[in-house]
Structure formats: structure tokens, C-alpha cells
Amino acid sequence: MPYYTGIDLGKRKADISIIDHKGNVKVQGSVDAKIENVLSFIKPFKKTQKIVFETCGTYYWLSDGLYHAGYKNTT
Q: Does the pLDDT at position 73 exceed 80?
């Protein structure tokens, strides 16, 4: 079953929501804006999720960190 992860990235916090294919919220929360925290939060859904994120500034560390952790860009 696919999951969809949305990340709203700020300077200090990342708000994350994960929903299933029917739109049901599986988990949501806020973590400090550090790659290890984001990866830890989304890890349970790794193999079956699509990730999108919105940011108002520097996002390269998130993009690069997700890529190096095995989350490949499919667009």
C-alpha cells in the first residue's frame, strides 16, 4: 500500500504528515529540522512512500539527505 509524505520545512522545524492511499492520516508531527530527525520520523514507511516538501529557503540538505538515504527522485 502506498503512503504519501508531506514535509513543511522551516528554519528550525519540519512538520511532517504521512497519509495512506485513501487519504487517512497515519502519522503527523514536528521534528527539529535536521536530516537525522526527518529520516527517523519517516523510516517506518520507507519502501512504500512518495515524498514531497515545501520550503521557504534552504532545502538542499533535505533533498540531498533524502537522496543519500535511498529516497530517489522519480520525477
A: no
